[in-house]
Specification:
This protein is α/β, with parallel strands linked by helices and about 400 residues long. The chain has 2 domains: about 1-240 and about 355-405, FAD/NAD(P)-binding domain (3-Layer(bba) Sandwich), CATH 3.50.50; about 245-350, Flavocytochrome C3, Chain A, domain 1 (Alpha-Beta Complex). It contains 10 helices and 17 strands. The strands form 4 sheets. Strands 1, 2, 6, 7, 8, 9 and 16 form a 7-stranded mixed sheet that branches. A 4-stranded antiparallel sheet has the order 11-14-13-12, with helices on one face. Strand 1 (about 1-10), helix 1 (about 15-20) and strand 2 form a beta-alpha-beta unit. The model is unreliable at about 105-110 (pLDDT under 50).
Length: about 400
Amino acid sequence: MLTRDFLVVGNGIAGLSFALEAAAHGDVIVVTKRSREESNTKYAQGGIAAVLDKDDFFDKHVQDTLVAGAGMNHTRAVEQCVRDAPGRIEMLQGFGARFDCAHDGDPGSDGNHASVAPELDLHLEGGHSARRIVHTGDMTGREVERALVEAINGAKNIRVLDEHMSIDLITLPTHGGPGVCAGAYVFNVDQGKVETVLARATVLATGGAGKVYLYTTNPDVATGDGVARAFRAGAEVANMEFYQFHPTCLFHPQAKNFLISEALRGEGAILRRLDGTPFMKEYDARAELARRDIVARAIDHEMKRSGAEHVLLDITHKGGDFVKEHFPGIYAQCMGFGIDITREPIPVVPAAHYLCGGMTTDLDGLTTMPGLWAIGECAHTGLHGANRLASNSLLEGMVFAHANR
């Protein structure tokens, strides 16, 4: 039996961010299903949305998020995330995360802008009304996970249990209600035994459930088991039907779940039918910069209308140097499948991508069960509504990890 102040289940941006802050207040155990480096965060390509440019405003980011979510968002959660975003970028930089930089512009200071210097290079993505995507090439998640894991490895008061899978929450009965969470039973994969971890606070940061679907952009660890065990224990779950499909997943017989980042369309990539004709302007005036749900439905309609197995995403007109500089990861991965994206379009299809529902929480991440918190993709904070705005996911994990510190 292990006893700690904090038990964190999950090792993505939400879980590790919380663990690093919580370590200042007590002992922390982090339970990871695989190695501590393997999480959904690691595979995030695009970046993190934050208002950092002098021509951007918090109110615009709020409105973009509400529009993407079909107005079903919780406005207070949206405002909390948007206004805290610049501080979370600074936090990641403090942990050693390296983001792509530009070197022009001046920060705003009127309360509706960020207070950090806008030396960061900012991408544009679909649904956003301004450039506000902080990124590291097209491998932002990998860099964020690297920085957080290095910080965890050097932190005091944090113990990581790699290759451990939580099985069920431990609950203590109360008079009425679902009981109080007191920790979790955890399966030690290497030793083949169940261990008991007791904690004053249990934090689920278990990510999404993409592997429930046949076609998904998610890695194998994203199985939705965190939400399932909270539901079994009696915690409230909401909006599980709101699952976002990413419009552009690589279509290739050897490609398991490779995402083609939203940022390609933000930088001018064009969606085409197999005969080469573009089609997005027939569905939305913003064409390739429409929201993910609109683009995914347009691609789905084109495939069903024509009987094609996929459509094409074409960025060849931007030139080889531009593509290799801005999207080195996607270029290398596609080349591994024999697709030179500087010379030929990319075959793409929509795929299950992000869970917008999850365990119901308040603005501090507390679920309906005392002693149990949820942060990141497994939580339903109300930020996303019915459809997530691009690059608000990593942001949400950090903001609510910080909020429930």
